[in-house]
Amino acid sequence: MFLKIIHACKTSKRKVQLSFCCMRSILSLSLSLSLSLSYFFFPFRHDIMKWNGWGYSDSRFLFNKKGQAEFTGKRYRLSGLILPSLKDWFEGTFGANLQHKSPATPALNVSAVPPPNLNESFVEELKAAGVALSQEPEDRVFRSHGHCLHEIFALREGRISRVPDLVVWPSCHNDVVKIVELACKHNVCLIPYGGGTSVSSALECPPEETRSIVSLDTSQMNRILWIDEKNLTAHVEAGIIGQDLERQLNESGYCTGHEPDSMEFSSLGGWVATRASGMKKNIYGNIEDLVVHIKMVTPRGVIEKSCQGPRMSTGPDIHHFIMGSEGTLGVVTEVTMKIRPVPEYQKYGSIVFPNFQQGVACLREVAKQRCAPASIRLMDNEQFQFGHALKPQVSSIFTSFLDGLKKFYITKFKGFDPHHLCVATLLFEGDREKVLQHEKQVYDIAAKFGGLAAGEDNGQRGYMLTFVIAYLRDLGMDYYVIGESFETSVPWDRVLDLCRNVKERIVRECKERGVQFPPLSTCRVTQTYDAGACVYFYFAFNYRGLSDPIHVYENVEHAAREEILANGGSLSHHHGVGKLRKEWMKEAVSTVGLGMLKSVKEYVDPSNIFGNRNLL
Amino acid sequence: MASKSLYSGRDPVLKKRDDFEDVLEERRNSSDLRYALRCYTPALYKGLVPCKASMLKSIVLQSDSLQYVVGQVSAECGESREAVQEEAALLLEEMAHRLQLGTIRFFAFTLSKAFKALFRGVCVNEEGIQRLQQAIQEHPVVLLPSHRSYMDFLMMSYILYTYDLALPVIAAGMDFISMKFVGEMLRMSGAFFIRRSFGGDKLYWAVFSEYVKTMLRNGYAPIEFFLEGTRSRTGKSLTPKTGLLNIVMEPFFKGEVFDVNLVPVSISYERILEESLYARELLGVPKPKESTSGLLKARRILSEDYGSMHVYFGHPVSIRSLAQGHISRSQHNLLPRHIPQKPTADTQAFVNDTAFRLVRLQEENMVLKPWVLLATLLLQNPDGMDLSTLTEQADWLRRLALAFGAFLDWPDHEPCSKVISSSLALHKNLVCVSGGRVRLVVEELPGAESATEEAGFNRAVSVLSCASYRNQILHLFVRPALIAVAMQTANCSRKDEVFNCFNFLRNVFSNEFILCPGAAVQDFEEACYLLGKCGAVQELQQDLVMSQSGQTTLAFLCSVLDPFLQGYQVVCRYLCEELEENLLENKFVPAVRSFTLQLILSGSLKCYEALSSDLQKNALAALIRLKAVRRVKAGDQVTLKVNKIAVNSLEDTLGKTNVQHINIYLYSSLLNNK
């Protein structure tokens, strides 16, 4: 019977919303069976997700027997389609070869996982309190990493370093209070875990940690507790995953509008803890604009504000100690967020510019006139070509003829150099009429900078790219290509200089470090602000012939970050600092600034219970 | 300090240098006209923003940084913005080049004719050209030639045209602009003109620096200027000026370009066109004003033989690599980049170090002709030498110079005597051979008296002309020579004692020679290494000992420095003995000159080089730097206040080095006994 329940849970996957009491009953049941310490039967996401790569297990890129690229599964627009030009782009860009494969270890070697270092009395009391927990190697390994290149690379090679000793699943705020109390009492180290999409080494267990490390997985705290239509707010448990939050709100006719690229997998608590930014922030704002109230459990107790006033002058905003604290101070358990009615109309769009400079000038003008659409992004030429390589096989001769005609018009008639032109993708949202009006305004500005409207299709494909690009990295890694993305924010007048210098630095560093083939080094401007922009870089290279590719990769990334800082860019726009960028914190916020943050940590968590050692 | 890493671990001797190719050879065998009209398609900078010379001006005038300064100036002086803007436009008009291919073609034709008449060959290292071509495509390039002659920048453009490289824009002094027609021709061949001094003129500085930076950022053309600021009249490299270097580095510091390549170029002449002009100038005969008629008169030089010249394009030096670890570019993060900022002390030190490093690179790649060695020897034997002795010693000196890493163009396949006689023949205006003795040519006076001022002057012209060749090799010997003198003075072989003396002398002479600030230890080690390598000195644990065979070398090195030691003493003596209360700074040189001339005429001084105004000015600069003399500004005039005790003690210390007089004899006798 027990097996059956597991089976039922697994097949029903995420659609099933188990009620609190139902889970409790299963819990007591399994306790009574006392099979093992593992209570591994929630509808856990990790059953349908890769253990050593990005996203869903059923969705992946591969080169089929004919050498054509295809994307498996049914989840995305691209799923099940053939991408005829990806192979040529892939081989041409990286000098890669489909004959040279670097496959991943197929399954986790459980014996390679170090045995858990348990604090027995902590575990006993936790069990007595009825909190779900597991010490199964799979569960622990799954929560031992984010998605930095070095983390995934090691998993693919089957290398396991320090992993949490125990995973606990609180089901509500009070569970978290209990867990934190016990952790303080028994001096164990807690690492909060939300969606696991960190790219700052934030989830890595500090190897120097000697205490038992407990991963606190918030995934079971995933309910919308109430919706307040008068004030347009929703009170939500922090473990909820982005896409679930939007879908459930949509059912009531609302949305938060917060759509970071990782929203399929990242959690609300994670957004708060890293100061996340969403694609549509121009309408809805970034996470700091969206939260009205936060509840966080710390070793000192629970921190929260006493009312939901929309703005306060009560000293420095305590929310700003919480947002961006990266799990060093406590666990965010519940958040009140602004919500909006689902927009009536959405429209994608795209603009071709003769070169990147013109594109940036246009974005700057749009920002100046404060008429940015929900999203506006500018891809450089390399990324434009990359996007092109992801075009699925066209079904009719007519479409391909039309494509040819478009290309002819832009390159021959308008004289755009295909090696310089770049594309902006747009997303408009709102009333139909206003959207069309808005669209005209933006296209008129674009025309002043030589921009030509290039259709909705290109726009939509551009946004799809952000969801599948992480899958593409896994494909690259199958063929000796490794890559990563990183971001920054920078004043408008430095955007061009920073983009050029960072891209060139990457190329130069790769060359100096013996990378045989020029790397892919590309960027896009993904957000506009009044005083500057957010720039996102991708870089990837073919590592055949390198004895320690990850070391080379890390050196290049380090150099690129130095270059960003030297060119007036910030340490991070929304990825956060984690452990990956810690070394620059002092430079970034000054010694006094760092001291301020340290003294907060000192007060809130004197025994370093939240010991992931991020940020400070 | 930055200099530490810049100069560590260099062994000049192991330096590999490229081969040369004579660009005139083809000119002699094919049509100059066709050459001037041929298809010219240089490889350009990959990030080039195409723009015309006229458009460049409007970019500069509209630039944020110039607009900022215009606003500032208009607020300060109460003039309207438009008026100041107009003024800026005029300044730019006066300054800007108007590079035109047609003019270049005209020069390509006429200069081909002229160069063929003047030179036996113009030798260029082709590998350097290839490196340059690569560099031009990658990053903005700054060409930094040495400056010995008016020919330099014409020659640079000529060579770049010949090799189908992007033509440079050249920072030139305003002197040329007054030349009717010629000034405009130069402008159209890429020269832009800057005033010699514009100290406090904010607007001028803004126009000028923005103009240069705009050309650099856009990758418009390689920018060429002379680090030394002016033509060296002495054949020695001049202490570099950092103003323009600062300007071309700024776009890198502010992240506006990824990198900038600095390319040192060494131009060496077997015989300098301005030879005797320079000597006269050093003796106080004013430099003839640049004029078109003067140029036409000078055409008689076309009938003379100036031997061959060498142009060596050095390895491009990446500012990015140099600045790595020395400059934090993020210091510019908090101020809008168009607001002018004084460079920080760190930046200034870095730019200064770089400037010295580049001048040393120029020196190292300067080709030395056999005549340079002969001039060195002849100056040490003012009464002339037997041809056989000269031949013998020249051969010895050749080997020493090679051991020190000299870039010597000595024809290996010819016998030594033949090399020497052809060298002497080329410089027959300076030396003559009669009865097997070689001596300096001194213009005879119609009257017979020889002890007059005029006779002294004529002899000085010969000596200084000759010295300008000897000086070309000084960069090679100066560090070991400072040790040689220090070893004599220290009177003790302890290394630290020798170093102290070395450091003192190095400090005194740091206006005279290219000695990088803050690099005393490196210089000392480098010199010790060289002396050890040629077997002159043995380095023991605590001591530095002259080896048995080293006496000749050390004595020779001492006498290389002798004219400078004596010259500086004369200046000190003048300041102690002769000075009336308030000496005006601009009266200093003439006063020292006549004082020195008197000493020479009275027979108590043999050193004619002490008459050189260059040496006198350097000595004064050193004394001011050492705080023995103070400059006091009173209105427009600057007077010199002398601390006689300090100057006196300096003279005494320098006097201790006088042992070398004995040594000269010692060393010649040793040579003769060999």
Automatic annotation (TrEMBL), chain A:
<feature type="binding site">
    <location>
        <position position="473"/>
    </location>
    <ligand>
        <name>substrate</name>
    </ligand>
</feature>
<keyword id="KW-0443">Lipid metabolism</keyword>
<comment type="function">
    <text>Catalyzes the exchange of an acyl for a long-chain alkyl group and the formation of the ether bond in the biosynthesis of ether phospholipids.</text>
</comment>
<keyword id="KW-0808">Transferase</keyword>
<keyword id="KW-0444">Lipid biosynthesis</keyword>
<dbReference type="InterPro" id="IPR016169">
    <property type="entry name" value="FAD-bd_PCMH_sub2"/>
</dbReference>
<keyword id="KW-0274">FAD</keyword>
<dbReference type="InterPro" id="IPR016166">
    <property type="entry name" value="FAD-bd_PCMH"/>
</dbReference>
<dbReference type="InterPro" id="IPR006094">
    <property type="entry name" value="Oxid_FAD_bind_N"/>
</dbReference>
<comment type="function">
    <text>Catalyzes the exchange of the acyl chain in acyl-dihydroxyacetonephosphate (acyl-DHAP) for a long chain fatty alcohol, yielding the first ether linked intermediate, i.e. alkyl-dihydroxyacetonephosphate (alkyl-DHAP), in the pathway of ether lipid biosynthesis.</text>
</comment>
<dbReference type="InterPro" id="IPR016164">
    <property type="entry name" value="FAD-linked_Oxase-like_C"/>
</dbReference>
<keyword id="KW-0285">Flavoprotein</keyword>
<dbReference type="GO" id="GO:0071949">
    <property type="term" value="F:FAD binding"/>
</dbReference>
<dbReference type="InterPro" id="IPR004113">
    <property type="entry name" value="FAD-bd_oxidored_4_C"/>
</dbReference>
<dbReference type="InterPro" id="IPR016171">
    <property type="entry name" value="Vanillyl_alc_oxidase_C-sub2"/>
</dbReference>
<feature type="binding site">
    <location>
        <begin position="326"/>
        <end position="332"/>
    </location>
    <ligand>
        <name>FAD</name>
    </ligand>
</feature>
<feature type="transmembrane region" description="Helical">
    <location>
        <begin position="21"/>
        <end position="42"/>
    </location>
</feature>
<keyword id="KW-0597">Phosphoprotein</keyword>
<comment type="similarity">
    <text>Belongs to the FAD-binding oxidoreductase/transferase type 4 family.</text>
</comment>
<dbReference type="InterPro" id="IPR025650">
    <property type="entry name" value="Alkyl-DHAP_Synthase"/>
</dbReference>
<dbReference type="InterPro" id="IPR016167">
    <property type="entry name" value="FAD-bd_PCMH_sub1"/>
</dbReference>
<feature type="binding site">
    <location>
        <begin position="274"/>
        <end position="277"/>
    </location>
    <ligand>
        <name>FAD</name>
    </ligand>
</feature>
UniProtKB/TrEMBL annotation, chain B:
<dbReference type="InterPro" id="IPR045520">
    <property type="entry name" value="GPAT/DHAPAT_C"/>
</dbReference>
<keyword id="KW-1133">Transmembrane helix</keyword>
<protein>
    <recommendedName>
        <fullName>Phospholipid/glycerol acyltransferase domain-containing protein</fullName>
    </recommendedName>
</protein>
<dbReference type="Pfam" id="PF19277">
    <property type="entry name" value="GPAT_C"/>
</dbReference>
<dbReference type="InterPro" id="IPR002123">
    <property type="entry name" value="Plipid/glycerol_acylTrfase"/>
</dbReference>
<comment type="similarity">
    <text>Belongs to the GPAT/DAPAT family.</text>
</comment>
<keyword id="KW-0808">Transferase</keyword>
<keyword id="KW-0812">Transmembrane</keyword>
<dbReference type="GO" id="GO:0008611">
    <property type="term" value="P:ether lipid biosynthetic process"/>
</dbReference>
<dbReference type="GO" id="GO:0005778">
    <property type="term" value="C:peroxisomal membrane"/>
</dbReference>
<dbReference type="GO" id="GO:0004366">
    <property type="term" value="F:glycerol-3-phosphate O-acyltransferase activity"/>
</dbReference>
<dbReference type="Pfam" id="PF01553">
    <property type="entry name" value="Acyltransferase"/>
</dbReference>
<dbReference type="GO" id="GO:0016287">
    <property type="term" value="F:glycerone-phosphate O-acyltransferase activity"/>
</dbReference>
<dbReference type="GO" id="GO:0019432">
    <property type="term" value="P:triglyceride biosynthetic process"/>
</dbReference>
<comment type="pathway">
    <text>Phospholipid metabolism.</text>
</comment>
<keyword id="KW-0012">Acyltransferase</keyword>
<dbReference type="GO" id="GO:0008654">
    <property type="term" value="P:phospholipid biosynthetic process"/>
</dbReference>
<dbReference type="GO" id="GO:0031966">
    <property type="term" value="C:mitochondrial membrane"/>
</dbReference>
<dbReference type="InterPro" id="IPR022284">
    <property type="entry name" value="GPAT/DHAPAT"/>
</dbReference>
<dbReference type="InterPro" id="IPR041728">
    <property type="entry name" value="GPAT/DHAPAT_LPLAT"/>
</dbReference>
<keyword id="KW-0472">Membrane</keyword>
<feature type="transmembrane region" description="Helical">
    <location>
        <begin position="158"/>
        <end position="179"/>
    </location>
</feature>
